[in-house]
Amino acid sequence: MDFTEPAEHTALRAAVAGIAGTFGGEYYAAKAEAREPTTELWQALGRGGYIGINLPEEHGGGGAGLAELAIVCEEVAGAGCPLLLLLVSSAISGEVIARFGSDAQRKTWLPALASGERKIVFAITEPDAGSNTHRLATTATPSGDDFVLRGQKYYISGVDEADAILVVARTGTTEAGCAELSLFLVDTDIPGLLAQRLPVSVLLPEKQFTVFLDEVRVPRDRLVGVLGDGFQQAFHGLNPERITGAALCVGAGRYALRKGADYARSRTVWNVPIGAHQGVAHSLAEAKIALEQAALLTAKAAWLHDRELPAGEAANMAKYAAAEAGLAAVDAAIQIHGGNGVATEYGLIPLWGLVRLLRIAPVNREMILNYVAQHSLGLPRSY
């Protein structure tokens, strides 16, 4: 077993960190405070070929894998600029269309996704379904040469920045009484689609929306893959979302840890740096250990996905560990800064809000513990 990082990964980290570092934490914090998209950074990464590094070369991507996209996510966050839409546009939508999309869909969407010119966000969450995908109420009904979509989606990130939404809808019912799901590419400017801003107190550049689908008519060629196979297709995208979400938490934690350690070395009280006190030093050391553990789990999960091996357990564990570790690191950095921890100029509160959100989404820690108890330990299902 060789833990030496390949030279190409080291070079990738340096290149992405170099681009994101020219923007930095101040840029991200200002965008988060203003609730403005990080368009300039997204475009810069797109020009460098990093937004679509995991997409096929024949469609303008980098031809690499999820391991490389996770590195991109970690390094932009490590520079203080975590990009939430990498999780949905590059990881979920890109992976799903590359794997299940038709030739026409791949040719239409993947080159623009890879270059960063276009974005596709993902809509599965509903007000009354929660984590129970089988209770999705949004429907897609055949009508002539089209499908008609009716329903409502909730907490959909970045609709205002997107050209299309990958919508998960019910197209039937299985013999067991569960929802038969299908995926559709729906333009954001299509008649009948209304995106209503959902106010949240978390400081993020990306906005959240409730999406209403009122008799939205889409052509049959907007169906992704095979009708009724949406559950399998969605989870091919949800594991990458969890893995890249984990990478984002690791990167944000690294950034906060660096800020906290710098402050602990330079801030002097009673004639010694505060980092000389174990009460300060130990919280940073514990955060460092937890982040290293989470980074290993994340790398393992991405490795499994890229080799088409079962990655659900590793993806869930990585997301759990990274969210816990990232939040502990950001919280330690805030605490060490004292009152400056909540000062706008130090830019830590937007990071705290993002990592705290990722402890809930895209799957909450409690459902991950349920998954591990049931599938990894063989315990009776608890829900």
Give your account of this protein's structure:
The chain has 383 residues and is an alpha+beta fold. Helix content is 50%, strand content 16%. It contains eleven helices and ten strands. The protein has a four-stranded mixed β-sheet, with helices on one face. The chain has a four-stranded antiparallel β-sheet with strand order 2-3-7-6, with no helix packed on it. A hairpin with a 5-residue loop joins strand 4 and strand 5. Helix 7 packs parallel to helix 9. The radius of gyration is 21 Å and the shape is globular. The mean pLDDT is 96.
**Rg over alpha carbons:** 21 Å
* Classification by helices and strands: alpha+beta
Number of helices: 11
Largest sheet: 4 strands, mixed
Question: How many extended strands?
Answer: 10
Instruction: Please report the distance between the alpha carbons of the first and last residues.
Output: 38 Å
Tell the overall outline. globular
Helix-strand sequence: HHHHHHEEEEEEEEHEEHHHH
Q: Indicate the proportion of strand residues.
A: 15-25%
Order of strands, widest sheet: 1-4-5-8
Report the average pLDDT across residues: 96
Residues in helices, as a percent range? 40-55%
- Report the uncertain regions: none
Q: How are the elements arranged and paired?
A:
Blueprint: H1 7-21, H2 24-34, H3 39-48, H4 66-78, H5 85-100, H6 103-115, E1 120-123, E2 139-143, E3 146-157, E4 164-173, E5 179-187, E6 193-197, E7 208-219, E8 223-224, H7 230-266, E9 268-269, E10 272-273, H8 278-306, H9 312-336, H10 349-358, H11 365-376
